[in-house]
Amino acid sequence: MATELTAPPARPLDGLWEQNPALVQMLGLCPLMAITTTTVNGFALGVGTLIVLVCSNLLISALRHWLKDPVRLPACVLLIAALVTALELLTQGFLPELYRVLGLFIPLIITNCAILGRAESCARHHGLATAGLDGLSYGLGFLLVLTVLGAIREVLGRGVFLSDLNLIFSDLTFEGLRFADGGLLLMVLPPGAFIAFGFLVAGFNVVQSRREANG
C-alpha cells in the first residue's frame, strides 16, 4: 500500500494535449520525422505505438507490487520488447506490404522514451484503470501527431491524400484523393519533416498560449 500512498497524482488525460509526447515532451522524434512521408505510414506506426503503450502500462500496473527496484527497469524494458516483438511478427504475418514499408521502425518502438516514461511515472504507481487510460491518452496524442504530420507531407509533397491505403487493405483499389499532379519535393525529404513539425509545434504553442490567456 505504500506505493499507492506515495504515488504522484494521476492526470491520465494530459497526453492528449497538455503533455503531448511529441509536441510538448519531444519524444519519439526519430520515427516521427522518418516514417511520416504519408498519412498511412504515420497512422500505422502511431497505432502500433498506441497498442504497445496501453499494453505495457496495463502489464506493468498489474505486476507493480512484484517489480522491486533492483529489477524494475530491466523487467519493464523486457516487457516492452516482448510486446514490440509480438507486434512486429503480427504485422509481418498479416500486413506484409505495410511491414516492408515500416521495416526497422517497428522494432524502434522499443526505444521510444514515452513508453518507458509512462511505465515509470504512472503505471508502476497506479491501478489498471488509471494506467490503461494514461497509456491510451498518451498513445492517442502521439498517433494524432504522426497522422497529421504524415497528411501534411503527403498532400504538400505528392499532391494526394491516402495514396497507399492498400498497404492496410490489400484488396482496395482506391488510389487516394488527388489535389495536384505533383508537389514540393522538399516535403517528402527529411528537411520537409522538420519544417512541417516546426509549424505543428508553433501552432500548438499559439493555441496553448491563447487557452492560458483565456483562463
What does this structure look like?
With 215 residues, the protein is mainly α. The protein has one domain. The protein is 62% helix and 2% strand. It has a two-stranded antiparallel ribbon with strand order 1-2. Helix 3 (39-62) packs antiparallel against helix 4 and helix 6 packs antiparallel against helix 7. The radius of gyration is 19 Å and the shape is globular. Mean pLDDT is 89; it is low at 1-5.
Mean pLDDT, all residues:
89
- Run of helices and strands: HHHHHHHEEH
pLDDT under 50 segments (min length 5)? 1-5
Distance between the termini: 37 Å
Helix content: 55-70%
Keywords:
single chain, 215 residues, mainly alpha, two-stranded antiparallel sheet, 2 strands, disordered N terminus
